[in-house]
Amino acid sequence: MMKKIVYITVMILSMQFGLAQQDPQYSQYMFNQVVINPAYIGSKEALCATMDLRKQWVAMEGSPRTGTISLHGPLPMKSINIGGHMINEAIGPVKWTAAYFDFAYRFKLGKGKLSLGLSGGMVNYNMSLTQSDYKDPGEIFPAQNMGPKTKPDLSTGFYFFNNSFYMGGSITHLNRPQLYKDSYTFTNINSLKDTAFINFSLNPHYFIYMGKGFLINENFVINPSFLFKNDNPGRGGSIDFNCNFLLKKKLWLGLSYRSGYGVVGLFQYMVTEQLKIGYSYDHGTNRIGAAGGGSHELMIGYNFNIFKSKMLSPRYL
User: Residue 141 and residue 184: Cα distance in Å, rounded?
Assistant: First the structure.
């Protein structure tokens, strides 16, 4: 039975959505793509600060709670872009934190710009089974607190964009950081010797996405997009289909369909040219979505236009 407890705990780490995605899920990724692609940094021609808070499956005890902050922008020569971001997440008995330095080199390509990015940092996991409920009273696991474990982590990506179109691709966890590889011998409730195995690594995650803005008139823009993601080439992955609408250059309203999971509704309001506030709500239609209830995500962003450059058209995002 102990083997099952440990297996289920490790599975929590990889069960972000129906496919075994270990990276946090973001429903408003299109407004802050640095969380999935280091090549995005600096593309706004401004110093951009963003905070994202997410509570997933509010009806499920121990469900993921994620907080992300990022800061990035171009250097004065503008072809070099630097930044950083931090992630903190709690999932049941697991808490993890990661901090990254992001770098991107950008150059003109045709009618747009191409950016190549690299991200490097450290990820720290802390798995504490003292927070787990045991099925059999009296069950004891001698190494209940197995963390913290800290390992280096690398990601890379590309990003092409102009004023009305963007396309990107990235790979996170290039080096497959192995956080746990241990075995423990213990005496089970039947007074017999048993062994539990812990083996957990971060798999590379693959992202490909694209979006296009269509200017209907000065007060109405349509921006369809999609995101394909996969953490195992042997499986089919999943796709987000999104369609956002910009009204009067102030308010974004959007709908998304996430294959294998459900639907998302979102809005973002531009309080000023620099300040934006967004919110999204996920409604799962699969088994875990129905059992876990909805998911909430709040985003706040501010762009410091320190170079006094003309900001990109809002239809591009």
Answer: 9
- 11: domain CATH number is 2.40.160.40
* Residue 208 resides in a domain: yes
Place of tokens 């497959």: 176
Give this prediction's pTM: 0.85
Does 309 fall in a domain? no
Residues 6+ apart with CB under 8 A from 61: none
Does residue 314 lie in a domain region?
no
Confidence of residue 2 (pLDDT cuts 50, 70, 90): very low
**pLDDT tens-digit map of 98-145:** 999 999 999 999 999 999 999 999 999 988 766 566 555 555 555 555
Is residue 310 assigned to a domain?
no
Query: What is the b/e burial string over 279-303, where b = at least 16 CB atoms within 10 angstroms of the residue's CB?
Result: bbebebeeeebeebbebebebbbbb
Number of structural domains (the chain) is: 1
